[in-house]
Specification:
Largest sheet: 8 strands, mixed
Strand order of the largest sheet: 5-4-6-1-7-9-2-10
Organism: OM182 bacterium MED-G24
Strand content: 15-25%
Mean pLDDT: 92
Radius of gyration: 21 Å
Number of helices: 16
Low-confidence stretches: none
CATH superfamily of the largest domain: Alkaline Phosphatase, subunit A
Distance between the termini: 63 Å
Protein name: Sulfatase N-terminal domain-containing protein
GO molecular function: metal ion binding; sulfuric ester hydrolase activity
Pfam family, one: Sulfatase
CATH topology of the largest domain: Alkaline Phosphatase, subunit A
CATH architecture of the largest domain: 3-Layer(aba) Sandwich
Number of domains: 2
Shape: globular
Keywords: Hydrolase, Metal-binding
Length: 481
């Protein structure tokens, strides 16, 4: 290949739970392509999202900044495209840049996703093919809906999505996932296969005059868990584990109470059989995503570029999957904030698993170092390349990693250390949750009101939390009554 620098393919899933994968030790999950990446690379088992919300986390990936630095607590600010962008830095380092899939830097509530194409170019992409996520495809057009329309399948898919939003059918806000069942689209016509096929096409079309940076953004395994029946048939409900439903001890955080109160699907009466069906749907969708990853790897192999390409895999946030009576995200339990983080260098390396605390911003710093690009000002990210280059490096990277959540008018902040997880009300700085993960890995006993842990909370707040939040100005925030 003519390019002296390696290519970079950053594969980004939506709502992918960290430990649901074969390489992560899940005996049920069928993920041969992710297992292949992990088997020839380094997996970071304690990587934390910048925010357990789609648009906020994705803005951090673009800017290399924490939520309180870029200010997107809920809906994105379009003016940020004129600020710092890791994509622009990579492009300026000599790369051809492209993004295909669910970008989600703005809401998709109708219209056409292509209306934002010029904004993506301003972020630094040379080519952008954006699609809406699966639920948003009900109302938002894109190149994918054009494809479905040409195949005579658009009504089929939108009828399925209409059924998923149960208020349009029988008055419920949303169909419970154990009732939803498979989508009757052919596997090759699913949203994520469309993204994979378009990504493979783009890879095949690249000239060898310069390296490329491609971001492949899948819409899954975000709900609806709409994998075709052939994927559901790969699993048996009786093989599925059960969600964490043990009794919680201590106070529930304010944001968890809000999630339970306003959840579109209530899980308090969910049976074990329903729980297993819920999980089967998610696992099926994840295996579909894995097959899509395989399409991208195959395109690199067939064009002779895999041995000159870095593969990076992660997700915007996790999925609660019924744990603690919750679905989706927007909380600081592990299921919501832990994300996969895989790095496979060109030609592969000896498989390593690292427990070092890492975060989204570290992925950004890693991408920039791979590209030989300028680093991001004011970013807390630290490149992970040293772990790839030196297998003997100790599992130490950050003293603590931060995740932030906006549920207007409230905002919350979490710090994860090697042993503890502390969350606070960002405005009042009141501690809300404290879990001793060494002795309570399921996060069932909130020690925030336990005097024996006052010193722990105080030390984390003073030495890690407060310095990280030093730049946060809340003087103009709406005070709660």
């Amino acid at each position: 290949m003519g390019a002296s620098k390696p290519n970079i393919v950053f594969i980004f899933a939506d709502q992918q739970r960290n430990e649901v994968a074969g390489y992560a030790g899940d005996p049920v999950a069928i993920t041969p392509n992710l297992d292949r990446i992990a088997g020839s690379g380094v997996s970071f088992t304690r990587c934390v999202t910048s925010s357990p919300v789609c648009m906020t986390a994705r803005t951090s990936i673009m800017t290399g900044l924490q939520i309180h630095q870029h200010g997107v607590w809920t809906v994105s600010n379009p003016e940020l495209r004129h600020g710092q962008s890791h994509v622009r830095n990579v492009r300026d380092a000599g790369y051809r840049t492209g993004i295909i899939g669910k970008n989600h830097l703005w809401p998709h509530e109708g219209g056409d996703a292509r209306e934002h194409a010029s904004e993506l170019l301003e972020w630094g992409w040379d080519m952008a093919l954006e699609v809406a996520g699966p639920t948003e495809t009900l109302l938002t057009d894109s190149a994918y809906t054009d494809y479905l329309d040409q195949e005579g399948l658009l009504t089929t898919f939108r009828d399925y999505l209409d059924h998923y939003h149960g208020e349009r059918v029988d008055g419920r806000h949303r169909i419970p996932p154990w009732e939803l069942g498979a989508c009757n689209l052919p596997p090759e016509s699913t949203l994520d296969m469309f993204v994979a096929n378009e990504s493979a096409r783009w890879i095949r079309e690249q000239a060898a005059d310069k390296p490329f940076y491609l971001q492949v953004n899948f819409g899954g395994p975000h709900d609806p868990w709409d994998a075709p029946q052939s994927y559901r048939d790969q699993y048996r409900a009786e093989d599925m584990g059960l969600s964490i439903t043990d009794t919680h001890i201590g106070p529930l955080s304010t944001h968890v109470q809000l999630l339970q109160q306003y959840a579109p699907v209530k899980l308090d009466t969910m049976t074990e059989d329903q729980n297993r069906q819920l999980r089967l749907g998610y696992y099926s969708k994840l295996t579909l995503i894995d097959d899509c990853v395989g399409k991208v790897l195959a395109a690199l192999e067939k064009t002779g570029q895999l041995d000159n390409t870095w593969i990076v895999f992660s997700a915007d946030h996790g999925e609660m999957l019924g744990d603690h009576g919750l679905l989706a995200k927007k909380c600081f339990y592990d299921g919501s904030v832990q994300v996969p983080c895989l790095l496979m260098p060109p030609g592969g390396t000896t498989a390593e698993e690292k427990r070092a605390l890492t975060c989204h911003l570290d992925i950004v710093a890693t991408l920039l170092e791979i590209a030989g690009a300028e680093s991001m000002p004011d970013s807390d990210g630290r490149s992970l390349l040293s772990f790839v280059n030196d297998a003997s490096k100790p599992d130490q990277h950050h003293e603590g990693v931060l995740s932030e959540l906006g549920l207007p008018p409230q905002a919350y902040t979490m710090i994860l250390t090697d042993r503890y997880k502390l969350s606070i009300d960002t405005l009042t700085r009141t501690s809300l949750e404290l879990y001793d993960l060494d002795n309570d890995p399921k996060e069932l006993h909130n020690r925030v009101n336990d005097p024996a842990f006052d010193a722990v909370a105080g030390e984390i707040t003073e030495t890690i939390m407060n310095p990280m939040l030093a730049a946060l100005d809340t003087s103009e925030w709406t005070q709660r009554t």
